[in-house]
From TrEMBL:
It comes from Leersia perrieri. One of its GO terms (molecular function) is beta-N-acetylhexosaminidase activity. Residues 30-148 form the Beta-hexosaminidase eukaryotic type N-terminal domain. This is Beta-hexosaminidase. Belongs to the glycosyl hydrolase 20 family. Residues 1-21 form the signal peptide.
Length: 526
C-alpha cells in the first residue's frame, strides 16, 4: 500500500512537472528507442532532391533492396505534402551515404541487423552517414532516419531538428514476431503487405503466417491440389505465386515469413478435399493418426513449402489436441491397440513423426508449448518451443536446454481486446531467467493477431499500436526500457500519430485495444 502510494505521488509529481520531467526523458521522437543516441540543437533542412550513395560499400544492391527502401522512406517523410518551400543556402542535407560491409543479401535468422547513423551539421556536401554490416541493418537505419524527419508547415520543407545526431543501434532479440491468421478470416494479399510495411516501422522482423486451421485452407499446395477445396470460397485463396510474392516482398524489407501448419489438431479443413484425413465423417479432427496418408500429405505440404518459405524455421503447431475422435473411431482404436499406444503416446508419435518430416526438408521446427509440456524430453533438440499459455514455461524450456519464443496470451495476444498497450510494453521475455546461457535460448517473442474476431476491416487498428509497444521491448536494451510505461506514453502516442499520418489505422492509446477516439482533440491526446 505504501509503495503504491509513493509511486502514484511520484507520478503525480511527474505529471505536474510534465513539461520538464517527462520532456527530458521522452522527447526523442524515435520508436523503438535505439541503443545509443546523442544529439545537438541545430535545425537542418532535407533537400527535396535528397539522394542516396553507397561509397565504400562492399554491397552492390543488385536486387535494389536499399534503393527501393530509400525511395519509400523519402515518400514517407513527405507524407503526401507538396514540398514546395525554397531550400535555404546553408544547413541543407543533400544526401545519405550508406556503407554496407557484407556483400550478402540473404535474410538469414540471426543476421546482423545493427547500424550506425550520424547526421552531421558540418561538411560539404552535408550528408547523413549510415554504416552497417548487412543491408538489413541499413534498412533499420533508414527507418530511424525517416522518424527524425518531418514536414514543416512554415518552411514547407522536410526538416530535421536537434542535429548533429549520433545513433548506434542493435536489436536485443533476433526474433521479433507478429502472427497473422488467414484461416479464421481470409486476409487479402494487399492487407498482408501493408502489415509487413508497418512491421518495418517498428523493426519487427518475423511475420508468423498461421495460414491454415480448422475453419479454412486458403493456400495452394501443388502436391495435394484438393487441399484448398477447404478454402471459404474461390476468391479467398493464395496461389503458390502469391506466397512467393509475399515472401519476396517481406524479405526485401528485412522481414522473414515463417509458415505454420498446425497438426494434428486445428486441421479439420484439410479433409474437405481429402476426407480420408478425417477419423470419420462424423468426427473430423485431429488428423487420422493411423492413416499413413496423413503423413504423406504433411510431407507434400512441407516439400512444397520448402520451395517457397526459405526461413530456417517452420511451425508445426501441436496445440490443443483433443484425442476423443481417435479413441471413438473403431479403426483408429484398433490401430492404437495393435501398436500398444494410448492417446498420449499417439499424440507424441504424431508430433515427432511430423518433426522428422520437416527436418528432412531442411527446417528447424517450432511447436506450441503443449508438446513440451507433455513430452519435452522427446522433442528434437533443435525444437523451438513457442509459449502461449502461462508466462512460466519459458524458464522451464531453457532450463531443459531448448530454445523458446515468448507469447503469453495474457499479455501478448492482440485478439484479447482487454490487453492494454502497457501490458504489451512491460511483458518481459526473460522474466525469471537469470543464467546468461539460458537467456540466450530465448530467441525472442511474438505478438499474436488471431483471426476469429478480425478481418481486413479492422486488423490494422487491432494490431497497432499495441504490437509496436512489444516491438520496443524486443528491440531496445532492457536498461533503456521504462519500468513504468507511463514514462513512454507520450512518445508512443506520437509514434501512433505518425502511423496514422503514414496511412496506418493505428488505434488511440487510451483504453484498450481497438478503441475509438476519446473526444475531439489533437491526435496525441487520444
Ligand atoms: C558502429 O560504430 C562503432 C564505433 O565506431 C563500431 O565499433 C561498430 O562496428 C559500428 N557498427 C556498425 C554496424 O558498423
Ligand atoms: C475440389 O475442387 C475441384 C475443383 O473445383 C472439384 O472438381 C472437386 O470435385 C473438389 N473435390 C472435393 C472432394 O470437394
Ligand atoms: C507411408 O508414407 C511414407 C511417406 O510419408 C512412405 O514413404 C511409406 O512408404 C508409406 N508406408 C506405407 C506402409 O504405405
Ligand atoms: C473433445 O471432442 C469431443 C468430440 O468432438 C467433444 O465432445 C468434447 O467436448 C471435446 N473436449 C474438449 C475438452 O474440448
Ligand atoms: C499412456 O501410456 C504411458 C506409458 O506408455 C503412460 O506413462 C501414460 O500415463 C499413459 N497415458 C494415459 C493418458 O493413459
Amino acid at each position: 500500500m505504501a509503495r503504491a502510494l509513493s509511486l502514484s505521488l511520484l507520478l503525480a509529481f511527474l505529471a505536474i512537472g510534465s513539461c520538464i520531467a517527462i520532456e527530458v526523458t521522452d522527447h526523442i521522437d524515435l520508436w523503438p528507442m535505439p541503443t545509443l543516441v546523442s544529439h545537438g540543437t541545430q535545425r537542418l533542412y532535407v533537400s527535396k532532391d535528397i539522394t542516396m550513395s553507397m561509397e565504400g560499400s562492399s554491397y552492390s544492391d543488385e536486387k535494389g533492396i536499399l534503393k527501393d527502401t530509400f525511395q519509400r522512406v523519402v515518400d514517407l517523410m513527405k507524407l503526401n505534402h507538396a514540398v514546395d518551400g525554397v531550400n535555404p543556402s546553408s544547413f541543407v542535407l543533400t544526401g545519405v551515404n550508406v556503407v554496407v560491409h557484407s556483400p550478402e543479401d540473404e535474410l538469414k535468422f540471426g543476421v546482423d541487423e545493427s547500424y550506425n547513423l550520424s547526421v552531421p551539421t558540418t561538411g560539404y556536401p552535408l550528408q547523413a552517414q549510415i554504416e552497417a554490416q548487412t543491408v538489413f541493418g541499413a534498412l533499420h537505419a533508414l527507418q530511424t532516419f525517416s522518424q527524425l524527419c518531418y514536414f514543416d508547415f512554415t518552411s514547407r520543407l522536410i526538416e530535421l531538428i536537434s542535429a548533429p545526431w549520433t545513433i548506434s543501434d542493435t536489436p536485443r532479440f533476433p526474433y521479433r514476431g507478429l502472427l497473422i491468421d488467414t484461416s479464421r478470416h481470409y486476409l487479402p494479399v494487399t492487407v498482408i503487405k501493408k502489415v509487413i510495411d508497418t512491421m518495418t516501422y517498428s523493426k519487427l522482423n518475423v511475420l508468423h503466417w498461421h495460414i491454415v486451421d480448422a475453419q479454412s485452407f486458403p493456400i495452394e499446395i501443388p502436391s495435394y491440389p484438393k487441399l484448398w477445396n477447404g478454402s471459404y470460397s474461390f476468391s479467398e485463396r493464395y496461389t503458390t505465386s502469391d506466397a512467393i510474392d509475399i515472401v519476396r516482398y517481406a524479405e526485401n524489407r528485412g522481414v522473414n515469413v515463417m509458415a505454420e501448419i498446425d497438426v494434428p489438431g486445428h486441421a479439420l479443413s484439410w479433409g474437405v478435399g481429402y476426407p480420408s484425413l478425417w477419423p470419420s465423417d462424423s468426427c473430423k479432427e485431429p488428423l487420422d493418426v493411423s492413416n499413413n496418408f496423413s503423413f504423406g500429405v504433411i510431407d507434400g505440404i512441407l516439400s512444397d513449402f520448402s520451395k517457397v518459405f526459405k526461413f530456417k524455421f517452420v511451425h508445426l503447431g501441436g496445440d490443443e489436441v483433443n484425442t476423443s475422435c481417435w479413441t471413438g473411431t473403431p479403426h483408429i482404436k484398433k490401430w492404437l491397440d495393435d501398436n500398444h499406444m494410448n492417446v498420449s503416446d499417439a499424440y507424441r508419435y504424431f508430433v515427432l513423426r511430423s518433426q522428422k518430416i520437416a527436418i528432412s526438408h531442411g527446417y528447424d521446427v517450432i511447436n506450441w508449448e503443449e508438446t513440451f509440456n507433455n513430452f519435452g524430453d522427446k522433442l528434437d533438440r533443435r525444437t523451438v518451443v513457442h509459449n502461449w499459455l502461462e508466462a512460466d514455461v519459458a524458464p522451464k524450456v531453457v532450463a531443459a536446454g531448448l530454445r523458446c519464443i515468448v507469447s503469453n496470451q495474457d499479455k501478448w495476444y492482440l485478439d484479447h481486446l482487454d490487453a492494454t498497450w502497457e501490458g504489451f510494453y512491460t511483458n518481459e521475455p526473460l522474466k525469471d531467467i537469470d543464467d546468461p546461457d539460458q537467456q540466450r535460448l530465448v530467441i525472442g517473442g511474438e505478438v499474436c493477431m488471431w483471426g476469429e474476431q478480425i478481418d481486413a476491416s479492422d486488423i490494422e487498428q487491432t494490431i497497432w499500436p499495441r504490437a509496436a509497444a512489444a516491438a520496443e521491448r524486443l528491440w531496445t536494451p532492457i536498461e533503456k526500457l521504462a519500468e513504468d510505461p507511463r514514462l513512454v506514453t507520450s512518445r508512443l502516442a506520437r509514434f501512433r500519430c505518425l502511423l496514422n499520418q503514414r496511412g496506418v489505422a493505428a488505434a488511440p492509446l487510451a483504453g484498450y485495444g481497438r478503441t475509438a477516439p476519446y473526444e475531439p482533440g489533437p491526435c496525441v491526446r487520444q
